[in-house]
Amino acid sequence: MSEKNPEVRTRVVHVSAASRSYDVHVGAGVLGEVGAIARAAAGGSRCCVITETNVGPLYADAVEASLAAAGYGVAERLTFPAGEEHKTLATLGALLEGLAERELTRDDVVVALGGGVTGDMGGLAAALYLRGVRVVQVPTSLLAMVDSSVGGKTAVDLAAGKNLVGAFWQPAAVVADVRCLLTVPRDLLVDSVGEVVKHAVLADPALLGDLTGRPLVAGEPDEARLVDVVAKNVSIKRDVVDADERESGIRQTLNLGHTIGHAIEAASGFALGHGSCVAAGLSVVARASARAGWCPDDVADAIVRCVAAQGLPTGTDVPLDELMRYVAHDKKRHDDSVNLVVPERLGAARVRRVPLVDLGALVAHDLEGADL
């Protein structure tokens, strides 16, 4: 693992959720500090790293060495097959059996090392095992760094849809090393920018403009910019989570682009990346919102331009009936309506209760002109 770059300042964002407060450490070369951070934040005497088959060979040895140096007894790691298709109850069951076989106690720590799937699986396993043990999230993808590792939402998928079984379980700490992004394939890195654009639309118009003019994944990686962008995104999500941990109010706005995006993702059999699906869903909802009079045309245009500048999709060719079938299984459905997050202006969004039939008509109208 490369030494920490002293010219790139590590940023620490403090989260004060109702159930637990913790720090998110964002830097370049901070993977070697996981043990010391876990020791200070979570304590415990033993730990177990949960990872997947792509990330484990790259980073698990370094993380386990850091944990051992901090005084932890490191149990044999648990590794599951990479990919959203393995984010299932069966995989979760195997992880829980593995923690029991390793005889972790309530005083011990789970370390979730990987992207969003690993964060979900490791976080949910920690939430359920012995009715809850501490977890340290170590995200290695941009998507996980800016979004899923922060806020405590953990889940697995069902055949009916994405993230339908889960729990809120805040981590004891988060360690995000942007150096890990150097080993992420470029197409996956581009995919992750979908959540970055979403956060910019919600709370940072200046960041949206910067991303439109300077796509985040272009040319050689700029570690300082990556640390800054990740920290900004974490701060945006922190502000929302602090105000509404359980998604009863303002936290629902973080689902901007997700109602349609999750439907696109499920319809693809999870072959299309989550960030790309969010980007497509965000674009579809932005255009539909402008058409419905919920936001000005120039707001929708700015959103779609930024999405396109990142090389992300701005529409979908999923048939309307199939798309709406998956929307009907969305967690945000209420009877015959769904809570749809719509942009009102750059930097502000609101939740509208929209009948499914009306949403279908809006989306159908929008898809006719979508840039596919």
Can you describe what's shown?
Helices cover 45% and strands 20% of the residues. The chain contains 13 helices and 13 strands. Strands 1, 2, 3, 4, 5, 6, 7 and 10 form an eight-stranded mixed beta sheet that branches. It has a three-stranded antiparallel beta sheet with strand order 11-12-13. Helix 6 (186-203) crosses helix 8 and helix 9 (258-267) packs across helix 10. The longest helix has 21 residues, at 223-243. The chain is globular. The model has no long low-confidence stretch (mean pLDDT 93).
CATH topology of the largest domain: Rossmann fold
CATH architecture of the largest domain: 3-Layer(aba) Sandwich
Q: Major sheet, described briefly?
A: 8 strands, mixed
Mean pLDDT: 93
Please mark out the parts with pLDDT under 50 across 5 or more consecutive residues, or reply none.
none
What is the N-to-C succession of helices and strands?
EEHEHEEHEHEHEEEHHHHHHHEEEH
Q: What's the total number of strands? A: 13
CATH class of the largest domain: Alpha Beta
Radius of gyration: 20 Å
Q: Quick one: overall form?
A: globular
Terminal CA distance:
41 Å
Helix content: 40-55%
Helix and strand content put the structural class at alpha/beta
Give the number of helices.
13
Strand residue content = 15-25%
What count of domains describes the coordinates?
A: 2
